[in-house]
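Hi support team,

I submitted a single chain yesterday and got back a structure, but I'm not sure I'm reading the token output correctly. Could someone confirm the output below corresponds to the sequence I sent? I've pasted both exactly as they appear in my results page.

Thanks,
R.
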Amino acid sequence: MVLFAIVGELGSGKTTCSTFLALKNWYLRGKKTFSNYHLFKIPYIYLDSIPKLGAIREGNLYLDEMWRRNP
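Hi R., thanks for writing in. Yes, this is the structure output for that exact sequence:
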């Protein structure tokens, strides 16, 4: 398993970069794609809740707007 985290300021292109990686992995490698944001012209499985994350066994997961709250 490999984990990439794309971090940066608001409007710096994080989602665009993630979407490019999703397109590349789907088109060139044929990987199954999961995402919590809508991908245009890329076949993917939309995740709208946290319990659905547990069902993923293979493929690539692209998440947008992952926030951490300070206690």
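A quick pointer for reading it: The beta strands are 33-35, 45-46, 60-62. Let us know if anything else looks off.

Best,
Support desk
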